[in-house]
Amino acid sequence: MERFLAQNWTVIQPALFLTFTAVVVLLVDLWLKEEERDWLAYFSLVGFGGAGVIAARQWMATRALESPVTGFGGMVVLDTFSLLFQLLFALVGFLAVLMAPRYLERRHMQRGEFYALLLFSTAGMSLLAGAQDLIILFLGIEVLSIPLYILAGFARPRLDSEEAALKYFLLGAFATGFLLYGTALLFGATGTTNFEGLRNSAAAAEPRQNLMFMVGVALLLVGLGFKISMAPFHQWTPDVYQGAPTPVTAFMIAATKAGGFAGLIRLLYWGLAPARDVWMPLLAVLAAVTMTWGNVGALLQRNIKRMLAYSSIAHAGYVLVGVLSGSLGFVAVLVYLLIYALMNLGAFGVILLLEDGEREVLDLEEYRGLARFHPGAALLMSLFLLSLAGFPPTAGFFGKFLLFTAGVSSGLLWLVVVAVLNSVLSVFYYARVIVKMYMQEPVEAPAFSRSWLLAGALAVAAVGILLIGLYPTVVVQFIVS
Amino acid sequence: MIVPVSYYLILAAILFSIGVTGVLVRRNAIIVFMSIELMLNAVNLSFVAMSRALDSLDGQVFVFFVMTVAAAEVAVGLALIVAIFRSLGSADVDDAHVLRG
User: Fold this and answer.
1) Does A1 fall in a domain?
2) pLDDT tens per residue across span A375-433
3) What is the pLDDT of residues B1-44, one digit of tens each?
4) Where would a tag sit more exposed on chain A, N or C end, judged by fewer CB atoms within 10 A?
5) What local confidence, expressed as pLDDT, does residue B13 receive?
6) What is the CATH number of the domain that holds B25?
7) Domain-located, residue A248
8) CA of B25 vs chain A CAs: smallest distance (Å)
9) In which band, very low, low, confident or very high, does the pLDDT at B101 lie, cut at 50, 70 and 90?
10) Which residues of B touch A220 (CB under 8 A)?
11) What's the ipTM?
């Protein structure tokens, strides 16, 4: 009992708060009538907001410390890296909750689990960001994923949603199997599951000669690569992002990927740093393949959710450039993931505006002449798409600039060249939507419905993108300080 | 007679490969899922064997986490398969093909 109490619980405080709110949401749900379910959204806003505040306070306290606080026998660490990621998760969760209530109401799927599952999933991401042990890495990934399997199928009995959930679940569990086998092999090769122990034994033994170690690292990268949809483990992404209910897709595209990257960076730089020459060339090639595959795939799509799914694969490739740039790239990765989350939440927010409970404007042809009917929605969509394409003065340009300069200064010139060429390629499919909205004749009036909550989320995303784009140095100084 | 640890590891590798093959070859969602469970249990076996060989308890602890998480996954997975069986009348993964592109 004494040992139980002696654990340093403060290191998982944001995750604890999220879990607590999720349980409260589940319980309160039992007493609420169908038309009162909006309260659950407000409860979960408090949950995400509270977790954000806790993370911000801990961040201020941690900045002053010499060495970061650890807890649970060195399995979880509380440092600025994990806290900034947790702030990002809280922000994304907050915005995703704002987008959901009216959509759920129109589609008659206002069930309380929705918000609880979002909160549980975010708690998993928080754990992942502070992982210092393969056990926590595994637990974080699973706590992140299992709620998302359910959320992807939340629109049942709609067949596309159920199919997305089944595919996501089967492929996700398959990837988990690889991740676990990799963990087992690493444990066998080094005799420890702790990142510090891994680091020491990877530095001492010659890792290149140990087959078990090498295969273990490769299998772990398969498992994590699945979560960040790195090619060739990305095949689930378009299907799942297309079939899942739109607010869930928005959350997944923005948060899950950030969570996966947090886990990947933790593993690579805290656990496997001395084995850099083993994973570095492999990941560099896969990054190039990922962005090219994503962009070429996006060019061929006719459904906007599917197109954004492929674009998210391409963006995972860009972020990998930052990941491979080492500590130089961490700031770039964080800033980019923030910008990337805002752009995608914004774009999906506009898609949610163009929905009336039965129809959803998803086919790219239906975007023809949108500017004539809803100039505001068309303008916002153009802003988010231009930012995704990386046009100045939007934040997307600045984010890519940061990533690519980090890549160049750590000697990954060829990869940066590939990434820049890919960015040029991506302009085609983003601009295609804008051209359709402004320069082509409309077919019929698109579906449309108003929501104040959604408008708030869109405003935050749009203002965020413009502010970061116009005053980029402020953001970087805020993170570096 | 003491069975050497390497035997256990080889058996685990074989079980894992059977699981992977099952996922790739079979089309029934339940059987695919069972193959995934086989992969997880192969991992558990190698964890326990390595734990014994290395004289460390970490691997045994890991197995508890794997079993717990696998149980949660079974609950979610079977529910999803039942849901899709109700709408499709089949649990064949090839019958679910609304999403493509």
Assistant:
1) no
2) 999 999 999 999 999 988 899 999 999 999 999 999 899 999 999 999 999 999 999 99
3) 788 889 999 999 999 999 999 999 999 999 999 999 999 999 99
4) N
5) 96
6) 1.10.287.3510
7) yes
8) 13
9) low
10) none
11) 0.96
User: Are the Cβ atoms of B98 and A138 closer than 8 angstroms?
Assistant: no
Interchain CB contact of B40 with A (< 8 Å): yes
Q: How far is A289 from A251, CA to CA, in rounded Å?
A: 25
Q: Does A306 contact chain B (CB < 8 Å)?
A: yes
| pLDDT tens readout for residues A38-72 | 899 999 999 999 999 999 999 988 888 878 888 88
Inter-residue contact A298 to A239 (CB < 8 Å) = no
Quote the pLDDT of residue A1.
47
Q: Write the DSSP string, A248-272.
A: HHHHIIIIIHHHHHHHHHIIIIIIS
| Record: contact A169-B80, CB cut-off 8 A | yes
In a domain, A2, yes or no: no
Q: Is residue B98 in a domain?
A: no
d(CA A111, CA A453): 18
Query: Is B83 within the bounds of a domain?
Result: yes
Backbone φ, ψ for residue A314 (5° rounding): -60, -40
What DSSP character marks residue A32? Answer: -
Pairwise CA distance, residues A15 & A381, whole Å: 33
CB-hemisphere CA count at 13 Å for A138? 29
What's the gap in Å between the CA of B61 and the closest CA on chain A? 9
The stretch A262-266 carries a mean pLDDT of: 95
Judging contacts by C-beta atoms under 8 Å, the chain B residues touching residue A142 are: 69, 72-73
Put simply, whether A181 touches B (Cβ < 8 Å) is yes
Q: What are the helix and strand counts (H, E) for chain B?
A: 3, 0
A390's CB contacts (< 8 A; 6+ apart) are A396, A397, A399, A400, A423, A426
Length of chain B: 101
**Residue at B97 is within a domain:** no
Q: B17, B37, B43: which to substitute to probe chain A, counting the most A Cβ within 10 Å? A: B43
Distance (Å, whole) CA A403 – CA A479: 15
| Residue appearing with tokens 């949401």 | A25
CB contact, 8 Å: B71 with chain A? no
Q: Which tokens sit at B58?
A: 């970490």
Domain contains B67 = yes
